[in-house]
Amino acid sequence: MKLLAHSVFLLLLMLCTNASDEQVYIVTLHGSPAIHKFSGNGGSPRARARLFTTRSATVAYTAELVARHDNLLSGIFTSSSYKKLYSYSHVLNGFAVQLTSKQADALRSLPGVRRLEKDCRVVKLTTHTPEFLGLSTGAWPREGGPTNAGEGVVIGIIDTGIDPTHPSFSVKGSVAYPPLEDFHGKCEENGGSPGFSCNGKIIAAQHFAAAAQAAGAFNSSNDFASPLDGDGHGSHTASIAAGNHGVFVSNDGFYFGEASGMAPRARISVYKALYRQFGGFMSDVVAAIDQAAKDGVDVLSLSVGPSSPPSSSRVTYLNAFDVALLSAVKAGVFVVQAAGNGGPYPRTMASFSPWIMSVAAGLDDRNYSNSIYLGNGAKLTGAGLAPATPGDQMYNLVLAEDALANTSGFSFSPSNCQQPGVLNKTLIQGKILLCTYSFSFIYGASTVKRVSDTAKNLGAVGFVLLAKTDLPGNKFNPVPLGMPGIVITNVQDSLFLLDYYNASNGGSDAWAKIGNGMNPTFQGTAPQVALYSSRGPGVKDYTLQDSDILKPNILGPGSLIWGAWSPIGTDEPDFQGEHFAMMSGTSMATPHIAGVAALIRQAHPDWSPAAIASAMMTTALVTDNKGQPLLAQHYSSSGGVDLIQATPFDFGSGAINATAALDPGLVFDAKYEDYISFLCSVTQTDHTQVMNVTGSSCGVKGTSTSALNTPSITLSSLVASRSVTRSVTNVAGVAETYILSYVEPPGISMQVSPQSFPIEAGKSVAFSVGFKVAAPITGEYSFGSLVLRGDKGHLVRIPLAIRAAAR
Ligand SMILES: *[C@@H]1O[C@H](CO)[C@@H](O)[C@H](O)[C@H]1NC(C)=O
Ligand SMILES: *[C@@H]1O[C@H](CO)[C@@H](O)[C@H](O)[C@H]1NC(C)=O
Ligand SMILES: *[C@@H]1O[C@H](CO)[C@@H](O)[C@H](O)[C@H]1NC(C)=O
Ligand SMILES: *[C@@H]1O[C@H](CO)[C@@H](O)[C@H](O)[C@H]1NC(C)=O
Ligand SMILES: *[C@@H]1O[C@H](CO)[C@@H](O)[C@H](O)[C@H]1NC(C)=O
Ligand SMILES: *[C@@H]1O[C@H](CO)[C@@H](O)[C@H](O)[C@H]1NC(C)=O
Ligand SMILES: *[C@@H]1O[C@H](CO)[C@@H](O)[C@H](O)[C@H]1NC(C)=O
């Protein structure tokens, strides 16, 4: 029950340090990687995987690239003076190598070498949802029910590994998973202890740790040189995307209903590249992407990303990570990435490129709260997830400070109730212990689980954790507590309780009982954008210049999500030893979208990644369950949490509607060449840089970044007027006539042409949208929308974010 902002994990924080002179570099060479050499656009990732593994020319080509890498290195360095960690041959032509800075300079000047990027240290920072998303009655029945939803689709998860013995991934009792034709992922079986094995549902699993090992960060007895999850995060995200249907969730002996992945029949391919204590390294993550693209995954889910725009390239889109993902998209892989947990401040996105679906996190309609009833008749509410105190009677209260024992030699403040030894059992037994929530719960080692353990150890019947001062971000994530307990998060309520205690004969006449907090409440307005979810606008370089690409792209459920946990997982002390955990973060929102993408791929195997993204975005919801415009959590001036009307910079196109996404009517499609044109039009990019990084040349025709055919229009700097073109493709299978309408962003006047059009099945139609500054310039963005309404009932909506500028 740490502060939300801190129990959200995500985030590979990029720290490109070079403590010693030896350093790992990601080196890119001239010459195409295999994906660029052998495949055009379209088609399934698996058809490509077949190409890469069975066609002799491709097999020979990748072998030749690897030989070239080795020859290049052995040609200038003695074999003992460097260490190659990986050859990348599918999504990048290059390698990761450990070198001294002098060697790096020598390598950089060799012909054939395009670029050296220092490897980045990546540090980890952090289910009722199928019903909430309408899957049970919407998308699943269309795909043959939960026992078939996701069949034949592979979701690749780059994370901390997986617990293969978990019921969320078990094949016991389910129809056997036959091998998937043309899927080529390997399973790294490991005979050691603890062992690892795949089972058909977990179709493949590998780990990538060469850079972690080279840096001396990897400890095999702790981090496991296998795909086994020693952390918990990877099992949690995998279960959200593709965990089995109807798995009983229990924690600390209590039952919390059933959990299910979004695509319960999808197969999972595990790429472990993040580790317990130290997080991971970018070159290991790139190796995981290279392998996933080669294997032929349909969807790649990344609950990881940098905490700030990487400075390895001036343009955010051209670092090795984003470029590797662009190649994967070219191969047909749908890529989903967490938006980041840097909210609610603007320009905090950790995901940048238009070929990536960036996911913001929302709160859904479930909440756990609890009440405490005082002897004076007052009732206070707080965060719970704990059983009630026994019987109907009241129990005596005792403040931790009034029950001290031997306090010498203890590291925690006794009032935080972290260690039983500091407190006097005789004075606490049979009573409700009052403890204080302080800063050390946020930045120190204090946990609510330890409060619970301390109270239990001292024989208390329950505990209350009081927030006596308003700490920054004072928002609790309720974790299951092993005994009656409540966290009073409201400062006034906490002080009220303390007053009552003081006024009741120094506590000896203070009484209370704690209510039952085990049952969730399903009320309130939902979804809402969570406080921690990173906000747009997207940025195009590390000086945080705004881009013309809408970020984030979509809102998925991310708060208080139950999912599988590895009992040996150490990520969250509150869940150590458990098989399930309730977590929050854009890390949790991302696999929801990955799972829905798998359902779309199952229904429409020939759709491109851009078409899948478009289907989810144009059908997303911009109103909540009360029919009102979506709200976003922000800080109020007093430091509390306020709800204000959300914008596309909070939720992108809106909240996912999985049912509608299966039948969008129209899609805004884009191909690899369109992304290259986009890169060529980014003003800071010179064309040789695009050539150097992607191997594609720019041509002469200048375009504008807003010309990329995205299902949104963002103009970060509209001077006077501009016209933007978009093209839609009819994927409904029948001809339909669409009428265009729009809501003008305040201060902007608009025109569309044509105002309506018929469109044949499978055909594309272009339309133009004109924007004109129509009010004094404020420097602020204003937001509108454009809607295409079809006569067969399809409704296609795209958000508009426009900022007028003087020049
Ligand atoms: C590796 O982890 C084990 C188990 O936690 C620990 O005993 C050992 O000291 C660690 N080794 C290093 C080099 O940190
Ligand atoms: C959930 O419950 C807590 C504790 O009662 C309360 O402070 C919070 O506002 C509730 N959240 C929502 C979204 O209803
Ligand atoms: C605990 O409290 C009891 C009752 O007041 C007292 O007799 C005892 O000495 C205390 N023990 C310690 C270790 O302070
Ligand atoms: C108090 O605790 C310290 C550290 O655990 C211990 O060294 C000391 O002997 C204890 N004193 C008493 C009176 O129990
Ligand atoms: C209650 O009494 C204690 C000790 O007498 C004092 O430190 C504390 O400030 C009082 N609390 C309130 C809320 O009055
Ligand atoms: C989601 O889309 C479906 C199909 O278009 C629609 O029936 C349903 O009402 C939508 N859900 C919500 C919550 O609006
Ligand atoms: C592109 O590569 C060439 C040859 O390696 C190099 O001279 C040039 O500086 C690079 N350009 C950029 C923008 O990185």
Automatic annotation (TrEMBL):
CDD domains: PA_subtilisin_like (cd02120), Peptidases_S8_3 (cd04852). InterPro entries: Peptidase_S8/S53_dom (IPR000209), Peptidase_S8/S53_dom_sf (IPR036852), Peptidase_S8_Asp-AS (IPR023827), Peptidase_S8_Ser-AS (IPR023828), Peptidase_S8_subtilisin-rel (IPR015500), Peptidases_S8_3 (IPR034197), S8pro/Inhibitor_I9 (IPR010259), S8pro/Inhibitor_I9_sf (IPR037045). Residues 150-628 form the Peptidase S8/S53 domain. It comes from the Eukaryota. GO terms for molecular function: serine-type endopeptidase activity. The lineage of its organism: Eukaryota, Viridiplantae, Streptophyta, Embryophyta, Tracheophyta. Residues 1-19 form the signal peptide. Belongs to the peptidase S8 family. Pfam families: fn3_6, Inhibitor_I9, Peptidase_S8. It is found in: Secreted. Keywords: Glycoprotein, Hydrolase, Protease, Serine protease, Signal. The keyword Glycoprotein applies. The active site is at D159 (charge relay system), H233 (charge relay system), S587 (charge relay system). GO terms for cellular component: extracellular region. Residues 24-121 form the Inhibitor I9 domain. Residues 708-802 form the Subtilisin-like protease fibronectin type-III domain. This is Uncharacterized protein. One of its GO terms (biological process) is proteolysis.
